[in-house]
Amino acid sequence: xxxxxxxxxxxxxxxxxxxxxxxxxxxxxxxxxxxxxxxxxxxxxxxxxxxxxxxxxxxxxxxxxxxxxxxxxxxxxxxxxxxxxxxxxxxxxxxxxxxxxxxxxxxxxxxxxxxxxxxxxxxxxxxxxxxxxxxxxxxxxxxxxxxxxxxxxxxxxxxxxxxxxxxxxxxxxxxxxxxxxxxxxxxxxxxxxxxxxxxxxxxxxxxxxxxxxxxxxxxxxxxxxxxxxxxxxxxxxxxxxxxxxxxxxxxxxxxxxxxxxxxxxxxxxxxxxxxxxxxxxxxxxxxxxxxxxxxxxxxxxxxxxxxxxxxxxxxxxxxxxxxxxxxxxxxxxxxxxxxxxxxxxxxxxxxxxxxxxxxxxxxxxxxxxxxxxxxxxxxxxxxxxxxxxxxxxxxxxxxxxx
Length: 402
Prior knowledge:
Blueprint lengths: L1 E8 L5 E8 L2 H10 L3 E8 L16 H16 L4 H11 L3 H15 L4 H6 L7 H13 L2 H57 L6 H34 L3 H13 L3 H23 L3 H11 L3 H15 L4 H8 L4 H13 L2 H57 L1
Antiparallel strand pairs: 1-2, 1-3
């Protein structure tokens, strides 16, 4: 059976789209006609892709992957076969992109492929940790249990991402509004007000003269500055494609006094939570470390994981290998050492991930508390300078008159 994506008109004349399984495009059209629909377009949907959908929309979103994983685990625990559970989820899915992914998985499994092999056809939708955990669950016969652990892991990671984004939305919004207000004052309000003073012969204070010069520069050359900033942004984006540049950039970021520890703990949280779920699923340690290196963002930590993996391959304990890199928080390294000594590596890694996540959340809350008053004070200071620059000539003129 082959999956076909279709666009058709239903019996009311309304356009509809979806995925249908058939032996050929002709049979797919016949199926649609049997439903009373008029097929407009039929396209072979191949599950073998390494990118998200183009005109048909994106693949699985993070929230959808969490929900599907939990539903999948629940259906497997209920006694449904893999094919039956996928069929149920296809009927339950709302977006065509989700139905297409699930249909591709079912087609691979019906064809005799393992679930791991089927997931490999969708590397964008199912990350490396997902595929490795599923493979371990299939091998151990505890697939439903592993799927539940995966669902918990994905939900925790999604919650951390949402909290971080929500904490940054307000400061970014305030900064954007403040910048627009200052630009509006400098380009429209200030020129109209100070033009009255420029017509007189009164010598203007230095603050007023500086404000007039800055206002003139923004009005005449502001567009050029904006273009330069956009060009610098594109240049920086191109520079990030060079691994050496990214390594130097990340090294400097991690060396900053406040931001550095925050970014390091954020990556340590990703590392600990990923290694925890893989170790608990029975994935070999070297394979788990390779998957962990794909979820860590900062290159110095990625290089540290690679170096530690090589030392583990030579027989060194993981905790000692990570300690020698000096890139991970000491509490994480000590909990890994305790887990290796007691044989409870997975459980202690989960505890370490929870501690690291709590630390990241506390630092995020602290940044939010500090950034808001700093931004308000900065905006207030800029507005105060503009008001003083406008008011000083008026005050001096009033003194001269009296």
